[in-house]
Amino acid sequence: MAHDEKLDLLRRVPLFARLGKHELERVGMLADEVDLPKGRVLMREGDRGEEMFVIVDGAAEVLRGEQRIQARGIGEFFGEIALVDGGPRTATVQLTEDSRLLVIDRRQFHALMDEFPDVRAQVFEALAYRVRSLEPDSAH
Questions:
Q1: Which segment, 33-37, 77-81, 104-108, 129-133, is predicted with the most confidence on average?
Q2: Cβ count within 10 A of residue 90
Q3: Contact status, residue 42 vs residue 93, Cβ threshold 8 Å
Q4: Cβ neighbours for 40, distance < 8 A, ≥ 6 positions apart
Q5: What integer pLDDT is reported at residue 116 of this predicted model?
Q6: Where are the alpha helices (DSSP H) in the chain?
Q7: How far apart are the first and last CA of the chain?
Q8: Are 84 and 49 in contact (CB under 8 A)?
Q9: Is there a contact between 25 and 11 (Cβ–Cβ < 8 Å)?
Q10: Could you say which of 14, 82, 100, 116 would form a disulfide bridge with 56 (CB–CB 3.0 to 4.6 Å)?
Q11: Which range has highest mean pLDDT (40-49, 77-86, 100-109)?
């Protein structure tokens, strides 16, 4: 993919939308782009997590056990929980459409969090939301 195409791609992802051109170029260096087919399992509940994913085009479903708990679409990300706490994956994620994804591994993720406070804040906001939504009966 051409340099300008990748920047345009990154600019369309809400997680990176507030970043300037120089910052987007840096994110582009940290993130790998992959095209994967419908049905591909990206992560399995209980496995060690080594990367997070951002959906650029396509869709996925989040499963806990055999139960579908959420759908994810363009601009959404997942896999960050295991990278934040070093624990196992909290869910299985499978693509429901042919998809284009950005993949950020553990080392790149921590570089991204260190270099871009806006991105870190958005990741932690999403993380807090996900924790709250998984435990609807608990006091917050």
A1: 33-37
A2: 19
A3: yes
A4: 94, 95
A5: 86
A6: 3-11, 21-30, 80-85, 106-115, 117-134
A7: 44
A8: no
A9: no
A10: 100
A11: 40-49
Write out the two tokens for 93: 């994620």
CATH class of 3-134: mainly beta
- Domain limits, the chain: 3-134
The mean predicted confidence, pLDDT, of the chain is 86
What is the rounded CA–CA span in Å between residue 114 and residue 135? 29
Contact 98, 36 (CB under 8 A): yes
Chain segment 25-75, per-residue pLDDT in tens: 888 888 899 999 999 999 999 999 999 999 989 999 999 998 999 999 998
> Are the C-beta atoms of residues 11 and 27 closer than 8 Å to each other?
no
Measured distance CA(4)–CA(46) in Å, rounded: 38
Give this prediction's pTM: 0.81
Distances (CA, A) of 101 to 32, 34, 37, 119, 139: 8, 5, 11, 17, 35
Under DSSP, is residue 12 helix (H, G, I), strand (E, B) or coil?
coil
Contact of 60 with 98, CB cutoff 8 Å = no
